Amino acid sequence: MTPEASQTLAQDLCRIFLGWKLRDDYEALLAIGEGSLRLDLRTGEAWCDGDPLPSLFIGQELRREIEKATSTSGALEGAELDAEFQTRRLWHRGEQVPSLEIACRVRLRIAGREVSAEASTQT
Q: Can you give the chain as a three-state secondary structure string?
């Protein structure tokens, strides 16, 4: 995998994490409220503030994306996502509704090269 392709993959993984595929884990993160989430993108395992979490849908989705992108190269040595998140209450149509603010960073180690990408959003 070229350095450019590795960088694009890291950016895509951030975009996917912050995008529509997070919806299946959105309520779980709202229930936690805030914290530091870590995902091992090779296994799909997740931790929040160092404590293990049940399997998250988004972790498995990102693992599949990694497998698709690196299946021919076989050079993936490490893949992690770290995210800081917190719940905010926003006014919407006269009611306060919960919303997540998330900043994430993906780090990939492919064939001895490290790349990373960062993104944040309010969902």
A: CCHHHHHHHHHHHHHHHHCHHHHHHHHHHHHHCEEEEEEECCCCCEEECCEECCCCHHHHHHHHHHHHHHCCCCCEEEEEEEEEEEEEEEEECCEEEEEEEEEEEEEEEECCEEEEEEEEEEC
Give domain limits for the chain. Answer: 3-122
Give this prediction's pTM. 0.85
Nearest by Cα to 108 from 73, 75, 72 = 75
- Is the predicted pLDDT of residue 74 greater than 70, yes or no? no
Q: Per-residue pLDDT for 72 more than 60?
A: yes
